[in-house]
Amino acid sequence: MNPTITSDGTMLDLPALAARFEAVAKALYPEGEANVSFEPPRRAEHGDVATNVAFGLAKTAKKKPLDIASAIIARALEDGDVRATVGEATAAAGFINLRLVPAFWQRTIATALREGPNYGHGEPQNERISLEFGSANPTGPLVVVQGRTLSIGDTLAKTLRFAGYDVFTEWIINDAGSQMDTLARSLYARYMQQWDAAFPFPDDGYPGDYLAPIAALIREVDGERWRTAAEAEWMPYFATFGRDANVREQQAVAARFGVTFDLWQSEKALHEAGAIETGIERLREFGLTYDKDGALWLRTTGSGDNEDRVIVRSSGRPAYFANDVAYHYDKLQRADRVIDILGPDHHGYIARLRALADAYNRHGAIEVLIAQQITLKRGDEIVSMSKRAGQIVTLAEIIDEVGVDAARFFFVMLSIDQPLTFDLALAKEQSSDNPVYYVQYGHARIASVLRKALERDAELVAAAKRGEHLDRLSEPSEIALARRLAEFGSVVAGVARTLATHRLPKYARDVAADFHQFYSDCIILSDEREQTIARLGLALAAQMVLAKALELCGINAPESM
């Protein structure tokens, strides 16, 4: 079906258009579930937007989806406002495909220019979210996996805030477990090796070279004070000194990476404040704990865990899971939702943390994302990484080699549940094969066009910013770019809804590709003044959206390259 459509109404926005089609579908097929939402079709030649509502109605209506789609289109086009908005409507394989009038997309550009940096911003959601990401043991420097969780977490925080959520970011300093004793012994060995190179290093110690400068600092501060001290004296000192030195370094590298946190929470501080006892007592009050073999257990199997978990050992010492009990209880007091982004070795935590939310009668309030493994390579060469062997690649080294922008883009460009292969050589290339270079070059190319326009006539740019003469935009690549820019708000909302941050860099690449095609097809600075102003307006809107998408990913939008 490809009717000739005339316009005698008022143009609708996309939500209103969907509502009109949904009303028609419900009127024609009241016995079915008619929910209409328009999304870009998989293939651009099918139109601007499409809906599969006919498939959902086919079973109850006992008709073919194609016939249902055709009937809905015919009835909807009796509405003058729909005709004013839709340039072409077709039913194909049961889908309703619409090509909207050029004025619809011209209006999108006008809106973008008018709203400026707020274009795509969501309405306040009245929901507070505690977002924890990047957390690492305070036993060494940040490594590659933290680069990925930091990039994803910070992008998610920025996007959630832009989408209208109140986000509180936090880092948990895991300083309450046996790893602190291991850190103390490892650091003490490095301290003693400054006088005796043969001093034995613990078999389970942290073998990297990063402890040597900390040991040297202890010698500088305390001299030989600890050489003859008893273990009970030096152990807590070296644990605390090493923790503080490592946390300072982690904070410095995170800040260099463009990431800051509202709270750096010490697990040890939670212990000392009695948070573990408070959290456990709440679990007792809910009747979700039981005693077995002298230990206190939490019933987590009812929430999908493969076994119940010990929270207090028979010795009376809290189990490691008690730390989760403490700080998640604390977070749930401060937030409507809790989101944790954990490393690849934490799959077992998903069910038990969900069980904690259930235990505190906050069903679904804790969400867990797992960042999958990372493989580093330079071209065809795999970069060896082994924490056990002391062959670590630090985040600082990655930043030194490829820069913050490239690192953050590469870390966030794949779905969090996909393993990531990070090609360091590609990240440094200045070519269209390098995705971050490709996107940043798009922004820089627009900036160059605008500089030339200002040199020619500053009023051209001023008129473009006011959104004048946008009715001159009708070429296929102009409409394609405008259509892409119109998606920005829904992309932001989609990332906030699904927590799928990889959609942002993908969208930025799509915007850049559409702009490069527009730049190739259309002369922006021509002798036709009105057309030049219209195309400059389109370029300005594209620049603004590209800059905002990059900003949400924590990446710079350069004016030149």
Task: List the keywords.
single chain, alpha/beta, Isoleucyl-tRNA Synthetase, Domain 1, five-stranded parallel beta sheet, three-stranded antiparallel beta sheet, 22 helices, disordered N terminus
Give an overview in words.
- Among the domains are: 14-100, Gyrase A, domain 2; 107-122 and 432-552, Isoleucyl-tRNA Synthetase, Domain 1 (Orthogonal Bundle), CATH 1.10.730.10.
- It is built from 22 helices and 14 strands.
- It has helices at residues 14-28, 53-61, 65-76, 80-85, 102-115, 144-162, 179-192, 211-222, 231-256, 267-272, 275-285, 320-334, 349-359, 395-402, 404-412, 424-428, 435-456, 458-465, 476-486, 488-498, 503-521, 529-552, and strands spanning 49-51, 86-92, 95-100, 128-133, 166-173, 263-266, 289-292, 295-298, 309-312, 337-342, 366-370, 374-378, 381-382, 420-423.
- The protein starts with 13 loop residues before the first helix and ends in a 9-residue tail after the last helix.
At the fourth level of CATH, the homologous superfamily of the domain at 107-122 and 432-552 is: Isoleucyl-tRNA Synthetase, Domain 1
Shape: globular
Per CATH, the architecture of the domain at 107-122 and 432-552 is Orthogonal Bundle
Rg for CA atoms = 29 Å
Low-confidence parts:
1-6
Distance between the termini: 48 Å
Structural class: alpha/beta
> Beta fraction of the residues?
5-15%
What's the number of helices?
22
Number of strands: 14
